[in-house]
Recover the amino acids of this structure.
């Protein structure tokens, strides 16, 4: 019998961007834009990102290191306020095992002529995938990629 | 223009029921059993659909008898029979966002009883609800589960 366990955790990441909220929001809402920055680290094998950006719509992408486990991301959009807020839930599988489920809130606040983005993730890690901060670290990596993407716009 | 906000909170509630884990799980999994407790206090359920399986979606409209204006849209994310249920739900009132929740229900045998641990991670939206109020509602429903199991 599989040992069942859960670990609940919350973390928050804040970033500022020179671009105003509608432009940062567009990097989330537009599938081609999001596929540019919402991807695994350099060197990973990746699938194409699929995005149906509406309340009740789904998003999926997968990837992993060559020869290593495949990480599957599957999300569903729960609340969208254009240019202001996105709330979604997503689950992560490593190969066939579900390792976590998360509630993610992204807030796009005006800051001068730019944007202060606040991302809050409330997660439950399942059955021993006690992730000891690696989820937060990985998510920070995604925001680094978003920052580079925004700079190129 | 609505001033937008998101307040994040985590609610934890624990109950012990005089029933085996399978019956406590059935209180969530079986439509007839769930209909007995799935609204807080004296509120009523005006409409409810059931689709209890991983990936299943349900919709429930509920609230005070004279104005059941709240809609909960649920998505089941992880189900381990007799042990664990993880689901998300968004709550709206006539289209106005109230909250989005990620809820974990853990069921474990505890001597002759069953322990239920509910953890709800919530984003309360635009000031339309708060953790104290939500906790009171959830506590009321967990108490009703106990009454339905004793009946």
């Amino acid at each position: 019998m599989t040992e069942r366990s859960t670990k609940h955790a919350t973390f928050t990441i804040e970033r500022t961007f020179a671009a105003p909220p509608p432009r940062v929001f567009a990097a989330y809402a537009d599938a081609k834009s999001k596929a540019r920055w919402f991807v695994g680290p350099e060197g990973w094998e990746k699938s194409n990102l699929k995005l149906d950006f509406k309340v009740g719509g789904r998003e999926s992408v997968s990837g992993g290191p060559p020869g290593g486990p495949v990480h599957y991301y599957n999300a569903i959009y729960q609340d969208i306020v254009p240019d202001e807020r996105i709330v979604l839930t997503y689950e992560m599988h490593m190969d066939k095992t579900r390792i976590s489920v998360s509630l993610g809130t992204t807030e796009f606040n005006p800051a001068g002529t730019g944007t202060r983005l606040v991302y809050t993730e409330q997660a439950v890690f399942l059955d021993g995938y006690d992730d000891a901060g690696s989820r937060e670290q990985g998510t920070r990596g995604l925001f680094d990629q978003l920052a580079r993407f925004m700079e190129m716009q | 223009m609505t001033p937008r906000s998101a307040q994040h909170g985590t609610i934890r509630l624990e109950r012990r029921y005089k029933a085996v884990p399978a019956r406590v799980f059935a209180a969530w999994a079986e439509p007839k059993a769930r209909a007995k407790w799935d609204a807080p206090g004296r509120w009523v359920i005006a409409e409810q659909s059931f689709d209890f399986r991983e990936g299943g979606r349900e919709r429930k409209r509920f609230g005070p008898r004279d104005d059941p204006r709240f809609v909960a849209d649920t998505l089941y994310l992880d189900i381990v029979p007799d042990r664990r249920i993880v689901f998300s739900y968004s709550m709206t009132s006539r289209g106005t966002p109230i909250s989005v929740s990620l809820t974990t229900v853990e069921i474990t045998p505890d001597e002759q009883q069953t322990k239920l641990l509910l953890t709800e991670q919530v984003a309360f939206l635009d000031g339309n609800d708060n953790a104290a109020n939500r906790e009171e509602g959830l506590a009321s429903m967990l108490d009703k589960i106990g009454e339905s199991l004793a009946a």
